[in-house]
Design a protein that fits this description.
globular, 709 residues, 16 helices, binds magnesium ion, alpha/beta, Molybdopterin biosynthesis moea protein, domain 2, six-stranded mixed β-sheet, binds adenosine monophosphate, 6 domains
Length: 709
C-alpha cells in the first residue's frame, strides 16, 4: 500500500508565538502529493495553529480518498522504562494519553512543560531524568544541568538515537530541546488520535493500514543534501520540510512502507535511519533541476528519473563490500619492495646504535671547555666510521674524529673541522661550544623495540633503507594481489603487430590494465580478449576466478544488445550495475564470479582508465591489504575555461604547465586515446555545478598519485 500525500512537520517547543515573519525554529509543515507539483511549505506561529492546519489537511485528504504519511521531528517514545513507570506498561501509545493529561499547552504556546517535567521526575528515585530549564524556573526536582542528575535509573537514549546531532529526549532547554518538543508534541498527536480514531495509526507501534499514518522523522539524516539542495537564502526549517517531503515522495512506495515499519515496539524508531544513502539519492533524484533535451554529442545520457549513484556513494559501497587477502609470504627485506607488510615491524636495534659524530672535526669533553679561544692537546690516533677508538680521551684533550664514528669514552661534543686550526699536536677553536654539538644520540632516530612500520604499509625504496638500518633482514608480507584482465568485443585484435581489417581495432585496454595492475604491485593475469559471446566470456571468467583475486573486464558493460558482459553477470553473478554519475564513465558493472569480484569497466579506453583509477585503484589497494586510498589531489590554478552542470562528477585529462597550472586536453572526446598519453593526471570537477576560468583553483590528481609509474 502506498502513501498519496507526504506531510513533514518541523515541530517547535517554543513558549511564545513565533515571529509574524516566517523564521527558523518555528513550526513548518511541508506537503508533497503524488501527481502534484513541487512540495509546499507553510509556516505556523503556534502549535495550536499548526494542529488546526493538520486537522484540516487530514480531513481533506481523507475526503479525497488519499492516504497520508505525516512525519514529525520529535521522539514518539522514550527510553525503555519510562512508559512503564507512568502507565505500568511498555506500550508507548499508552504513554501518550498519560502525558496529554499532564501537559497544558495554550493557544499562544504558553505551557507547563517544566512543571510537568518536575512532577514526572518525582516518579523516579534520585534526580532526573528530565533536566534543563531557564534560571527563572526554580524547582529542585528539575535540575538546570544534566550532570546534576543521579539515580533515576533510566537510559539516556533510545537504541535508535546514536545518530550524530541527535539530542536526548530528557533535555528540555537550549540546543535542540528535544525534550520540550516531545512533551509538547506527543499530547498534540494524542489529540489527533482522539479526533481521527480508527482512521489514524502510529508506526511502528501500529501496523494496520489507515488513511492517516504518523511516523517520527529526523531531518538531520539528510542534512547535507538539504543544505546542498536548499534554495538560496531559504530558511533552513523550510528547506528541511520541503525537501524531506519531496524525498519521501520520491522513494519507491514499497521501500517507504517498509521503512515505516522498522524499529522497536517499545522505543520506536526514526524513519529512514540506516538508509541515509537511499534517502540522499531519492532527494537528489527528486530535486535535481530538470535537464533540457540531451545534446547529441553528450554520450553520458541520463534518462530523467533514473537513479544515478554519486561517485562518493559508489566508493562507500565498494569500500564496505571488499576485504583484504590474508595469505602471507616471508621475504628477505631486499626483495620486499612493493609488498604490503602483513604485520608491523619492530626495530631490532636502535638507529644510531651508539652515539656518533655528525661531522668531520675534533671531539672532546664539553666540561673542560669554556668561552674564548680553546687550545686542546690532541691524543694520538683518530676515531672513524667503522674504526672505533679503543681508549678513553682524557678530559681537556681532543681527538680527531670523522663522520659516523662512535664517540670514544670521554667525548660528548664535536667541533667542526672548518672551525678549527691545528698544527698536528694541538687543536684551537673559539669557545664556547654548545654541549653535544655535532653529535647524534644513540636511538635518536629510532629506538630498539619501537614500531618502525605498521602493518598494511607498502614497502618503497626508503622503507628498505629503514628496515635494513634497524636490522630487519626479513619481513612478513601479504602475497601480491592477483588481477586478471579480460577485454571483450567482436571488433578487437589482440596483437598490435598483426594486420587489422577495417572493422577491427587493436585491443588498447588490456595492455593498459595489465600494466596498471603491475604498477599497483599486483600480479597481472592476462585472460586475453573474448568475442561478444556469453559462453566464451563465461569460460574466460572461470579461468580468471581460478587464477586471480579480482577480475577487470572492459567492454560490454552497458545495458545494450551487445553488452554481453553485463548480460552474463546479470544472469549468473547477481550483477550490481551502478549507473555512476561520472564523466567519462558508463555504468560500472560489479559482480562476484565464483566469489571473485568482477569490475566490468567501460570499453572506451578513456572511460576504462578513469573508472579503473577512481574505482579499481582504491579497491585493489584495500584488497591488497594496504587500505583504502583516496587520490592525491593538488589544488592548482586552471589554465582553461569550462562550465559544468550539477549532478555528476567529471574528470578531465590534464597536465601541469611549467607554471604549475592545470591545462586540459584540447578535446574532451572520449575516443581520444592520445589524450590519456598526453596527460599527466586528471582534473576533478565536483558533482556540483562549476564555472571555471583561467586562474580558478581546481583539483589536479596526478597520475603518480594513482600509482601510475
Ligand atoms: P563497449 O563498452 O563494449 O560498448 O565499447 C565502447 C567503445 O570502446 C567501442 O567503440 C569499442 O570498440 C571500444 N572498445 C571496447 N573495448 C576496447 C578495447 N579493449 N580497446 C580499445 N577500444 C575498445
Ligand atoms: Mg563492445
Amino acid at each position: 500500500m502506498s502513501f498519496d500525500t507526504i506531510v513533514v512537520v518541523d515541530w517547535s517547543g517554543a513558549a511564545t508565538p513565533s515571529p509574524a515573519r516566517p523564521s527558523a525554529d518555528a513550526i513548518w509543515i511541508g506537503v508533497a502529493r503524488h501527481g502534484d507539483g513541487p512540495a509546499s511549505a507553510s509556516y505556523h506561529r503556534t502549535r495550536d495553529d499548526a494542529c488546526q492546519s493538520l486537522h484540516g489537511l487530514f480531513e481533506a485528504e481523507i475526503a479525497a480518498g488519499r492516504r497520508v504519511l505525516a512525519g514529525f521531528d520529535f521522539p514518539f517514545a522514550y527510553p525503555v522504562g519510562f512508559a512503564r513507570a507512568l502507565t505500568n506498561s511498555d506500550d508507548p501509545l499508552g504513554l501518550w494519553p498519560a502525558l496529554a493529561a499532564r501537559i497544558e499547552d495554550g493557544p499562544d504556546n504558553a505551557n507547563n512543560r517544566f512543571a510537568a517535567a518536575a512532577a514526572l521526575n518525582d516518579l523516579f528515585p534520585g534526580l532526573g531524568p528530565f533536566w534543563g530549564c531557564p534560571s527563572t524556573f526554580d524547582d529542585p526536582r528539575l535540575p538546570p544541568k544534566g550532570t546534576a542528575r543521579h539515580g533515576h535509573g533510566l537510559p539516556e537514549r533510545r537504541s535508535c538515537e546514536g545518530a550524530p546531532g541527535a539530542q536526548p529526549c530528557w533535555k528540555l532547554y537550549t540546543t535542540g530541546s528535544v525534550g520540550s518538543q516531545a512533551l509538547l508534541g506527543i499530547p498534540r498527536l494524542q489529540a489527533l488520535r482522539d479526533a481521527f480514531g480508527g482512521t489514524l495509526s502510529v508506526r511502528p507501534f501500529q501496523t494496520h493500514e489507515t488513511p492517516i499514518t504518523l511516523v517520527e522523522l529526523f531531518p538531520s539524516l539528510i542534512a547535507k543534501t538539504v543544505s546542498d539542495m536548499a534554495e538560496t537564502g531559504e530558511i533552513k526549517d523550510r528547506a528541511q520540510v520541503r525537501i524531506l517531503a519531496e524525498t519521501l515522495r520520491a522513494l519507491d512506495p514499497a521501500t517507504l512502507d517498509a521503512m515505516t515499519r522498522e524499529g522497536d515496539a517499545v522505543e520506536g524508531h526514526i524513519l529512514g535511519l540506516g538508509h541515509e544513502a537511499v534517502l540522499d539519492q531519492a532527494a537528489r533524484r527528486a530535486l535535481s533541476p530538470l535537464t533540457p533535451p540531451r545534446l547529441k554529442d553528450d554520450c553520458f545520457t541520463m534518462p530523467q528519473g533514473v537513479d544515478w549513484v554519486p561517485v562518493d556513494a559508489a566508493l562507500d559501497k565498494l569500500r564496505a563490500a571488499l576485504a583484504p587477502i590474508t595469505d602471507r609470504e616471508t621475504l628477505p627485506t631486499a626483495r620486499a619492495g612493493g609488498r604490503v607488510l602483513a604485520t608491523s615491524v619492530t626495530a631490532r636495534r636502535s638507529n644510531p646504535p651508539r652515539p656518533n659524530s655528525a661531522v668531520d672535526g675534533y671531539g672532546f669533553a664539553h666540561a673542560a671547555t669554556g668561552p674564548g679561544v680553546q687550545r686542546l692537546p690532541l691524543v694520538a690516533g683518530r676515531a672513524a666510521a667503522g674504526q672505533p677508538y679503543a681508549h678513553a680521551v682524557p678530559e681537556g684533550h681532543a681527538i680527531r674524529i670523522l663522520t659516523g664514528a662512535i664517540l670514544p669514552d670521554g667525548v660528548d661534543t664535536v667541533v667542526l673541522e672548518e672551525d678549527t686550526a691545528t698544527d698536528g699536536t694541538t687543536v684551537a677553536f673559539d669557545g664556547p661550544v654548545k654541549p653535544f654539538a655535532n653529535t647524534r644520540k644513540a636511538g635518536e632516530d629510532v629506538t630498539e623495540g619501537a614500531e618502525a612500520l605498521p602493518a598494511g604499509h607498502r614497502l618503497r625504496a626508503p622503507d628498505l633503507a629503514l628496515l635494513s638500518a634497524l636490522g630487519i633482514g626479513a619481513v612478513e608480507t601479504l602475497r601480491p594481489l592477483r588481477i586478471a584482465v579480460l577485454s571483450t568485443g567482436d571488433e578487437l585484435i589482440g596483437d598490435p603487430a598483426a594486420p587489422a581489417r577495417p572493422h577491427q581495432i587493436y585491443d588498447a585496454n588490456r595492455p593498459m590494465l595489465l600494466e596498471l595492475a603491475r604498477n599497483w604491485g599486483c600480479a597481472a593475469v592476462d585472460l586475453g580478449h573474448a568475442p561478444d559471446d556469453r559462453a566464451e566470456i563465461a569460460r574466460r571468467l572461470d579461468d580468471g576466478a581460478a587464477k586471480a583475486d579480482l577480475i577487470l573486464t572492459s567492454g560490454g558493460a552497458s545495458a545494450g544488445d551487445e553488452d554481453h558482459v553485463s548480460a552474463l553477470l546479470r544472469q549468473r553473478a547477481n550483477l550490481q550495475a551502478w549507473r555512476i554519475a561520472l564523466k567519462p564513465g558508463r555504468p560500472l558493472a560489479l559482480a562476484l564470479w565464483q566469489g571473485v569480484p568482477v569490475f566490468g569497466l567501460p570499453g572506451n579506453p578513456v572511460a576504462a582508465l578513469v573508472c579503473a583509477l577512481i574505482f579499481a585503484r582504491p579497491a585493489v589497494s584495500l584488497m591488497s591489504g594496504a587500505g583504502w586510498t583516496t587520490p592525491l589531489a593538488m589544488t592548482v590554478p586552471a589554465a582553461f575555461t569550462k562550465r559544468k552542470k550539477p549532478g555528476r562528477r567529471e574528470y578531465l585529462r590534464a597536465r601541469l604547465t611549467p607554471e604549475g597550472h592545470a591545462e586540459v586536453f584540447k578535446s574532451e572526446g572520449s575516443g581520444r586515446i592520445s589524450s590519456l598519453s598526453w596527460a599527466t593526471g586528471l582534473v576533478e570537477l565536483p558533482d556540483e555545478a562549476v564555472e571555471i576560468a583561467p586562474g580558478t583553483p581546481v583539483g589536479f590528481l596526478p597520475y603518480a598519485g594513482f600509482g601510475i609509474t
